[in-house]
Amino acid sequence: MRKDGTIPTLYREKSSQWKGGVSSVQIVARNDNRLYEQWKYPILVRDGFKCTKCNNTAGLHVHHDGETFSEIIKKVMTIDDYEKIDNFEVKKTITDKIIEYHVKNNVSGTTLCKDCHNNFHPSLNF
Asked: What is the span of the domain harbouring residue 55?
């Protein structure tokens, strides 16, 4: 407990949201247009650019409905990558592997609006 009586903030492995230190890689990969062009866009087209749960057409996300994004990152990263995770070039190399994995393995996804996506991940609040 902090001196003011509040619950302490938990970091890294102690946090319930800890996913192995892959969040910085997630940011780089999610912002890479190739992931959108090669994986997300075809799913949006297939689903008619509407949420598959409520038919909303605004604020659309592509939800991983099988493997999670974090699980995929962990699959493509090597031990050497973890040791150099603060290097941007390493993050870009991992991003290349993530995109390749999504395309080669036809990773399953579905189109959801922001509200429906939040129902799947309430603690993340997209």
From this structure: 21-120
First to last CA, the chain: 29
CA distance 12 to 20: 8
Give a yes or no: residue 8 inside a domain: no
Specify if 2 maps to a domain: no
Domain assignment of residue 107, yes or no:
yes
Q: Is residue 62 part of a domain?
A: yes
Total tally of structural domains belonging to the chain: 1
pTM confidence score: 0.74
Would you give per-residue pLDDT tens digits along the chain (126 residues)? 556 667 666 655 566 655 555 557 788 888 889 999 999 999 999 999 999 999 999 999 999 999 988 899 888 887 676 666 666 788 888 899 999 999 999 999 999 999 999 998 877 766
* 3-38 CB burial, b ≥16 within 10 A, e <16: eeeeeeeeeeeeeeeeeeebeebbeebeebeebeee
Q: Give the three-class secondary structure for 77.
A: coil
